[in-house]
Amino acid sequence: MAELESLETAAEHERILREIESTDTACIGPTLRSVYDGEEHGRFMEKLEARIRNHDREIEKMCNFHYQGFVDSITELLKVRGEAQKLKNQVTDTNRKLQNEGKELIIAMEELKQCRLQQRNISATVDKLTLCLPVLEMYSKLREQMKSKRHYPALKTLEHLEHTYLPQVSHYRFCKIMVDNIPKLREEIKEVSMSDLKDFLESIRKHSDKIGETAMKQAQQQRNLDNIVSQHPRISGGKKSKKEVCASSDLEVKNTSPMSEQDSGILDVEDEDEDEEVPGAQDLVDFSPVYRCLHIYSVLGARETFENYYRKQRRKQARLVLQPPSNMHETLDGYRKYFNQIVGFFVVEDHILHTTQGLVNRAYIDELWEMALSKTIAALRTHSSYCSDPSLVLDLKNLIVLFADTLQGYGFPVNQLFDMLLEIQDQYSETLLKKWSGVFRNILDSDNYSPIPVANEEVYKKIVGQFPFQDAELEKQPFPKKFPFSEFVPKVYNQIKEFIYACLKFSEDLHLSSTEVDDMIRKSTNLLLTRTLSNCLQNVIKRKNVGLTELVQIIINTTHLEKSCKFLEEFITNITNVLPETVHTTKLYGTTTFKDARHAAEEEIYTNLNQKIDQFLQLADYDWMAMEPGSKASDYLVDLIGFLRSTFAVFTHLPGDVDVHSTMSGKVAQTACMSACKHLSTSLMQLLLEAEVRQLTLGALQQFNLDVEECER
């Protein structure tokens, strides 16, 4: 058993030795480990030493066998060393010569290398600059545009710079600086454009007056052109517009009324430069700041902010424009400036509406116009109520019409303005009535209440031309002769016609129908007759110092004025072209006015006669205790009867419908005589029945009887 184990161990040691001989030294570790892991380490070392000695003997044998060859090889090597030394020397010499010869080439090569490097760097630099230069150029262009205040192009340049050029060179430091500056530049553009907009808003606020004045001049020129076209329908051809028809009818009315030169034309400012070309209202304003700012805010995504700001500021300006000055009613220029500012404001807004997309819309414009219309009408109602001069009211009406026509030309509804003009027409009528009240008072106060003497045919025709009077008997009489009425008759008649003309002036350009104009004139004329003229006549009749002769002449005058009413009717019909037979035509009440005045004059005559009788009776001094009567009637009664005789002689001049000296004079004279006799008899009876008369003598009664008999005769 022990032998078997030693044989196995020897075989294992042999295997390990073979592995050590044949295995790479890097892999010998595991083999040696197996030796140290076993228990036969000493025997293996003995085996290994025996193997080493065996190999040494083999090496020695081999060396002894090859020794001569080794010596020969050494000898050959020594020879080769000498040759190699020679070769080395040659190579060294050749190298030295080559080095000497190649120094210039090396220098040239270094220079070439450096040039190639520089060329490559230059090429890279050019490529980089090619990318950077457009960026720098765009940035320079941006700065130049900002400097020259071309903000919208600057914003476009900024957009190109940010999205097209900077991404290509974003790794450069200067590009990062530019990128950081872009929000600042945008904000700067935004602020500068907003500043320009504020300047624009301030400018148009200051120049609204001029813009409106220009727009109203254009409207006046257009109206004048329409009038010219309406005068020459053959030239215009085709159908007329509503506005042309109105202008034509207004022109016909104007041609029938003898206006004075100062009343023709609407406003002085329109008449001055009528033939000159008026520039467009929009030509006076540079709207580019609005467009630029709108585009800039749109590009920046802040359009809504801009729209809200613009509308808010314009609303504020509208409220300022619509605030009338406190003294506006004093002069026409105050109203003109007020209207010019309003027109200027809405001309600008209308232009903005049609030249921008959505900055303002129709609803916004309509809202502003509704506010402006209500405030304007309220201001006009307030301030026009202070006007007491009809000429100023008429000029104001013409100015309002021009104001309305101007804004209507821009598409704004103006019906409320024309409705308000009808209200002002009532006020105009009142101012006319006040003015004509003064005119009538002056005429009546300055009249001499005597028939108008006529010395020749020329004067006669002049008066007949002023007042419609025809009398065949008077025409047959030789000169000099007298009209039955005094001077206030033709003067009052002509002033009534002037009043009608004044009413007609107000109705022009109000787009009223002929019937409406006729109705308006007739109502105003009726007020003139029944209120103004009637009051003036009544005041004259009721004056304390008016004489019977004057009252008689007033009766004569009112009779002739009453007859002239039909001519006033014809006059109104001629200027309005509305026949009096029309269903809704208002009738003139002049006949009633003059009848009432005549009756008042007659009553005043009766009252004055009775007062005169009372004055004479105050002179009566009866001696109720006289024993004997006098031989004649009392002196006071003789004087009274003489006064009554001379007074009734005046009534022979009263006119009548059939016979001037009989019917009318007889009626008034009879009534006056009856009134005087009745009053005299009543007064005489009162003398007898006075409480102071307690005793009467027969002589006193006989004297009283003489006086009564004198009255009977």
Give an overview of the whole structure.
The structure is a single chain. With 713 residues, the chain is mainly α. Among the domains are: 18-65; 172-227 and 283-412, no CATH class; 427-450 and 486-607, Exocyst complex subunit Sec15 C-terminal domain, N-terminal subdomain (Tetracycline Repressor, domain 2, Orthogonal Bundle); 619-712, Dsl1p vesicle tethering complex, Tip20p subunit, domain D (Methane Monooxygenase Hydroxylase, Chain G, domain 1, Up-down Bundle). Helix content is 76%, strand content 1%. It contains 24 helices and 2 strands. The protein has helices at residues 2-22, 29-37, 41-147, 151-165, 173-231, 233-236, 242-256, 268-272, 288-299, 303-321, 332-355, 362-384, 390-409, 415-446, 457-466, 472-476, 488-507, 514-541, 548-563, 565-576, 590-617, 635-650, 663-688, 698-712, and strands at 453-454, 481-482. It has a two-stranded antiparallel sheet with strand order 1-2. The radius of gyration is 65 Å and the shape is rod-shaped. One of its GO terms (cellular component) is exocyst. Residues 47-216 form the Exocyst complex component EXOC6/Sec15 N-terminal domain. Keywords: Coiled coil, Exocytosis, Transport. Residues 45-115 form a coiled coil. Belongs to the SEC15 family.
